Amino acid sequence: MGGSMRCNTKWSEVDDVLFPINCGKQWHWILARLNIKQRCIYVYNSLRSARHERALLFYVDCYSELLPLFFEAIDLFSSRDDIDINSGPYAGLTSANPIRIEHVPDLPVQTDLDCGVHMFCAAEAFVAGKVLGGDFNIKEQRTRLASSFYTYAMWKDEYSAISEDEAPPKMNRND
User: Fold this and answer.
1) Under the phi-then-psi rule, with left for phi > 0, alpha for psi from -120 to 50, and beta for the rest, what region is 159?
2) Is 0.70 surpassed by the pTM of this model?
3) What is the rounded CA–CA span in Å between residue 123 and residue 33?
4) CA dihedral (158, 160, 163, 165) positive or negative
5) Which residues pair with 145 in a beta bridge?
6) For 18-71, what is each residue's pLDDT tens digit?
7) Helix or strand holding residue 138 (H, E)
8) Out of 17, 44, 111, 130, which residue is the most buried by the measure of CB atoms under 10 Å away?
9) 47 Cβ partners below 8 Å, 6+ apart?
10) For residues 44 and 33, is the Cβ–Cβ distance under 8 A?
11) How far apart are CA 161 and CA 166, in angstroms?
12) In what order do the strands lie in the sheet with 28-35?
């Protein structure tokens, strides 16, 4: 919630994990937020229809079923004093039980092919402790993001900055 991304943070040190999901067959992006304490995946979807909701559940269900198995494999709860697996959302459940899924209500609805912008803005709003509301203007957000990406690209060019993904592979010192 400090407005920065902390890479390489242990699962035992986070409460919320944001992750984009590409719903390939639907040509659509959604944002999912895993809240470990509440044992829930919150879905931020900018398309609202029963048909889309059912189709997108296929993608979210995969995470809902796999994450409990992952948590068991890494023995997450032995390192979490703040989560009692015998009460609250964990009471009576095992790693075979999927994580609960909830759709976040009252999000702005996309009117064009802007699901990526909606997804990114929902993530930004969550990190800032805000909620996307009725004053959401997709044209302003698209322009703001395009300007930010352009400014970032110009900065990288000016300072010859290289992102890790763009850097050549590191050489092993023993070679």
Assistant:
1) alpha
2) yes
3) 9
4) positive
5) none
6) 999 998 877 889 999 999 999 999 999 988 777 777 778 889 999 999 999 999
7) helix 138-158
8) 44
9) 28, 109, 110, 115
10) yes
11) 10
12) 16-23, 28-35, 40-44, 100-103
